[in-house]
Amino acid sequence: IFQASGNEPFWSLKMDFNGNYHFNTLDGEEIFVPNVEGVKLAESEITQFYAEVEKATLIIEIKSELCQDTMADKASNFSVYVQLKYSNEEQFRRFIGCGDFLEN
Question: What's the pTM?
Answer without folding.
Answer: 0.91
